[in-house]
Specification:
This protein has 9 helices and 14 strands. The protein is an alpha/beta fold. α3 (about 30-45) runs parallel beside α4 (about 75-85) and α3 (about 30-45) packs across α8.
Length: about 300
């Protein structure tokens, strides 16, 4: 039996495994954390919705152990789906090459649980508002340098109660780097909490932080902020009032610019083509209107974008 060792665990058992096998878990972002979490969930028997907006690049392979050199240039969501179907053919895996924004959130409507494995605070605030409004559980996980953190949400408090709004001065993996073991560690903790939630077991309601270099793990109690505007129903990300049209991509000198839907056949000099995107050494253009521009500044990215799309 595929899940025999898992069902032998008194913490899960046959009933827990049945719940897991009937569940649909959305993994948002298939980078360092998300690729690990998706792989663990697939092996555990959960059905998956995989969402990512980017393609696999050479520099990803140091920290995203789901992919190999043969996946370079492929959309992460599609590559992950194809790999995980070979791992577990019994589960359902749906892949979406998309940027999660206030217009595309309906793709999450059927998910029982959402794992936030993204690389930017704006998307996390958006997921937070969506889950709070729709009373869906979700789990945040983040990593930078040798530090990682995770927190589960189930409508007792929200992300905005605890974390500050996005700031331009935040450190990123571009500035201080990232060790792959920290991502693997926090993904393992995130998936364990996901299994607890799906199996209807008691799960952690504390912020878990760890520094894998110093072998430190801490649990921090959290509580609802009585002055939280999001808990009061002010969903500024959900209604599109907050959010940028230009997004700095974490871990690389590139920017995502959101435009109108594109006719990829009209983009010339493409070096790589797929059903979802075309690219050359400067841009990756997606059908949904997103363009990732390789540049070392936002102004340079806008200049390159305008050269191709006006």
């Amino acid at each position: 039996m595929r899940y025999n060792k898992q069902t032998l665990l008194k913490e899960i058992g046959k009933k827990g495994q049945e719940k897991l096998s009937k569940s649909l878990i959305a993994v948002i972002g298939l980078g360092a954390i998300g690729s690990n979490s998706a792989a663990l969930l697939a092996r555990a028997g959960a059905n998956l919705l995989l969402v990512d907006r980017d393609i696999v690049e050479l520099e990803n392979l140091q920290m995203q152990n789901l992919y190999s050199e043969s996946d370079i240039g492929k959309e992460k969501a599609i590559a992950a789906r194809n790999i995980l179907r070979l791992v577990n053919s019994e589960i359902k895996i749906n892949a979406r090459v998309a940027d999660l924004n206030f217009k595309s959130l309906n793709m999450l409507d059927k998910a029982d649980l959402i794992l936030d494995c993204t690389d930017n605070l704006e998307t996390r605030f958006l997921i937070n508002e969506y889950c709070l409004k729709n009373k869906k559980p979700w789990i945040y996980a983040g990593v930078i340098g040798t530090d990682a953190a995770m927190l589960s949400f189930n409508n007792k408090y929200c992300f905005n109660c605890i974390f500050k709004e996005p700031s331009e001065n935040l450190e990123t993996c571009d500035t201080i780097g990232l060790i792959n073991t920290a991502a693997s560690l926090i993904a393992s903790i995130q998936v364990t909490e996901a299994i607890k939630i799906i199996a209807r077991k008691e799960f952690s309601e504390e912020l878990i932080t760890c520094n894998i270099w110093d072998n430190e793990l801490k649990k921090i109690k959290v509580a609802r902020n009585k002055n939280c505007m999001t808990c009061a129903g002010n969903f500024n990300y959900l209604n599109g009032k907050r959010g940028n049209s230009v997004i700095k991509m974490c871990g690389r000198n590139a920017y995502q610019i959101n435009g109108s839907r594109l006719n990829l056949n009209k983009i010339k000099n493409s070096l790589h083509k797929s059903n979802y995107s075309v690219s050359n050494n400067e841009i990756i253009a997606f059908k949904d209107g997103r363009v990732i521009v390789k540049a070392n500044s936002e102004s340079r990215a806008r200049s390159i974008y305008n050269r191709y799309f006006g």
